[in-house]
Amino acid sequence: MANVFEFVAEARSATGSIAAKAVRRQGKVPAVIYGGEAAPEMLVLDHNEIVKHLAHEAVYSHVLDLKIGEKTEKAVLKHIQRHPARPQILHMDFLRVDESHKLKVHVPLHFINDAVSVGVKKGGVVAHSMVDVEVLCMPSALPEFITVDLAGVDIGETIHLSNLVLPAGVEIPELHHGAEHDHPVVQIIKSRTEEAAE
Fold first, then answer.
1. What is the maximal distance between C-alpha atoms in the chain?
2. Is residue 1 part of a domain?
3. How many other CB atoms sit within 10 Å of the CB of residue 13?
4. Would the pTM count as exceeding 0.70?
5. Do both 123 and 193 map to the same domain?
6. Same domain, 141 and 60
7. Per-residue tens of pLDDT for the chain, all 198 residues
8. Angle at alpha carbon of residue 111, lines to 130 and 157, rounded to 5°
């Protein structure tokens, strides 16, 4: 199997919406890589290969190898624009990675022990407010995901950003802006049948 952390791209010179549509008609995806000291570079990637790569959740939170001709750049996937009605990738943004500088990237949240949590055993329902979280860390410390353990959560209790157990060297920049930014991640609420019974 091909390395899911390696994206093969070609440089493109034409810019604008007309050029992007022409690229898409050829079964390709227009993209850009930016950041660092180098200028932004317009790229083209194969749509089918991209879809295969994006089927792996880890791609969204790993430092990737972006092969452009003879050179390879380290980058993270920063943004994907998808078609609202069709399973089509319209555009991708890659951010260059400098191993000596921290980066901000969204990392998936993995929820565990929801079926055996205190609140669910009492008839509560798990309500997710987030599926991923933006973290700040050095590229070498970038986690594939962050685990959220629901075992001890009771009905009416909420896990906030500040409650997340983060790996060493990883922080949540949102929390630097004060307590009002300590958003809920997940909570266990009463089920409708339980509310009706009461």
1. 68
2. no
3. 6
4. yes
5. yes
6. no
7. 346 699 999 998 777 778 888 888 899 999 999 988 889 999 999 999 999 999 988 898 899 999 998 999 999 999 999 999 988 999 999 999 998 999 999 999 999 999 999 999 999 999 999 999 999 999 999 999 999 999 999 999 999 999 999 999 999 999 988 889 999 999 999 886 655 555
8. 70
